[in-house]
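We now fix the convention by which a protein and its fold are recorded. The integers have meaning only within a learned vocabulary of local backbone shapes. The record below shows the convention in full.
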Amino acid sequence: MDFLSKLFGKKQPATSSRNQPSRSVKPPTPPTAIAKSNEHYMLKCVDCGFTHHIPRATTLLSVVFSVDVNEVKMVCVYGGGAFTVTLDVNEFFTITTIPDSGQVLNASISDNIKPLHNHMLSHCDPLFLIIQQSRNQTTHKYKKQPEGNTYVKFSREHGVDIVGNINVSKAEIPGVS
């Protein structure tokens, strides 16, 4: 009994040089939007010492994650440009480059919006998430005051209010989508 048989309690088929069992090759697991850090970015709250690390740039099969340092904005481009999602936090955070740390960092808007949202809400209540949408793009921008006619208002006391016509299925709204 070989190692796999002992481990799984199954007999392996007999083989010969002419009669090799077909090796079933598992299809590759779809890529996850996680990148090991080399040189990456650190967001630092403008009001306190809170920091949050994000990857510098990551390209996977179906998504390209990048950061616009001047705007303090994360960008995810899906399907070779078919759909783009952005998250702008420049009213609340500064950004600096950090050397290799060995951390595993999330290269997605949804994974980064959660901790950032909770921290921003701790400083600014109510907190506004300005959302602009088109057929192939959704932009998210956190602000201290509402702008335009499509936004989400977050308040610890009053909950979440969605203002305007927002396609929630194409947006990252903490506590909603």
Summary: The chain has two helices and 13 strands.
